[in-house]
Amino acid sequence: MRLSIVIVNYNVRHFLEQALGSVRRAMQGIEGEVWVVDNNSADDSVRMVRERFPEVKLIPNTDNPGFAVANNQAIRQSAGEYVLLLNPDTLVEEDTFRKCLTFMDEHPDAGALGCKLLDGSGKFLPESKRGFPTPWVAFCKTFGLSTLFPRSPSFNRYHLGHLPENETNEVDVLAGCFMFLRKTALDKSGLLDEVFFMYGEDIDLSYRIQKAGFKNYYFPETKIIHYKGESTKKGTLNYVRTFYLAMIIFARKHFSGRRAGLFVMMLQAAIWFRAGLTLFRNFLGKTWLPALDALAIYFGLVLLKNFWASYYYHDPTWFKTNVLWFNFPLYILIWLGTVWLSGGYDTRYNLTRLLRGLGLGTLVLSAVYGFLDLDYRPSRALVLMGAAWAVFATIGIRLVTHFWEFGNFRLGRSKVKNLLVVGSENECARVLGLLNRVGAAGKNFIGRVDPSPSPNGGGNAEQLGNVAQLHELVRIYGANEIIFCSKDIGSQEIMANMAQIGPSVSYKIVPEESLSIIGSSSKDEPGELYTIDIRYNIAQPSHRRDKRLIDLCICLGLMISLPGWLLFSGKRGMLIKNWGAVLLGQKTWVGYAPNIQNASLPALRTGVFSPVDALKDLKVNEETAARLNFFFAKDWEVERDLAVFFKA
Fold first, then answer.
1. What is the pTM of this model?
2. Which of 117, 296, 395, 621 is most exposed, with minimal Cβ within 10 Å?
3. Per-residue model confidence as pLDDT tens digits over 131-161
4. What does the DSSP 8-state code read for residue 209?
């Protein structure tokens, strides 16, 4: 057998479906096998593989043992002369495997081969070729010298920036998303080191392959798309910690003495540095809009204070200084707090939530105002004028930021994309139907591009031309989104068009017979996914916040009515036992009924009661309990929690 392909999957079913479709086409005429090791995914990946790809050899793990362990499970059972480790969030060309096999056959010194990696917008990914992470290399990467000097052989050794991206070269490290390995080299160097849970195992294996007397090659004659960030979400503290701890494991394993100590010390410093940057970036991303709102409202309140003191009281010094350090911050805290509770910062341009929050805040502020000491009650008029200014200022900020981001003042509506669909009439109709079903139909559909390069490709009023004219059609009609139908156009041709048109256009692909449309606009962002999968209310941040508030309100109500329910409630033991746990956030009053299918639902804390408990003495089987949990998650609202709690 010539080739064994190993794919480790964890909760990326839609990307896995596309990857396996491209692998199936690329394996035609090659004697080989495809293995999928699923690390206990909760997104129905296993069922999809069994139904859509029966030829695939599937290993469904009941836990997540990590990337290295899962790959080794399949490698040990594989029978190929070569083994390819492939990520599930990739798309390969139709001739990728044939080209790699030819190169490896012609270069018996090659132990491993990597190809040219592109992101979802068609841009080259520099991690296609890398150098070993020595202390100097790690320093340059951590502190940004490799970014400042991308072509330098000294400062950007990590990505080997001095080597041309379209030239075959011997390199140190290959990316784990595509490692084409000679089985005899694996036998000599050993399998992936299972000490690495995720990250670092590709560097370690590349290093051991070289120590075993083989070479690693970067081979740009074939390319794949890698939707970075899908199989592993980046930009989080967990990613920073896991990545650099993997580097520490590598350093301790392969370096010794002073060199190892220096490397480990630098990597530990890098963890703190990168973690700090990540925290700061995440904090900035969440707080810049509330901070801008707060500054604008405060500035307006100061102007209103000066105006009202002069106009109404005829005394510019009428208001005491405490309004500046006590009243105004209190007003702002209440207004912005109620906007946050209303979900006004979850969806930035939702005016309904913004105005609802400001209105509620004004009511709360009016109630609080009456309880303040006379010295801290400057003027009701100032509160009312301040509320009007808060509405004006916050809407104004959103208008400006919306124009900056989308080029228009239509809040809640992003810039309408001019869409071209490359595919047959039937596939084009299917794509438009999918977009409509998932609520992504708000696009300006320009027309269909026939996948045949023939200039006389027939067609109808919707057909603008053929794929050979795609670059011109994008320019003529100002298209900024293209959806390729993989049933009608191959991966190789898709990537060639992406390279020709460039990253200014958003690209998406609809796999054959799939209910998903997949794409990505940046290597730094997770892939975009249009799918008709269920949208769960309970997964929305505003609803989760509402659920927590309901838990706290019930706790408060139980505390106030303590004598009554102690005397008359048949559930007093359960209430006493769980009251503190709910208050501390360890449990929720209403959660799922115990069921094996709960893993596929949005996670919730353990519930004291469940929808099954609300049915009193009715006997509910496993299937019915699973359905009740499903509808509870899908249609959740405040009233559901209250109804279940009081019935139970």
1. 0.71
2. 621
3. 877 767 777 776 777 778 877 887 887 778 7
4. H
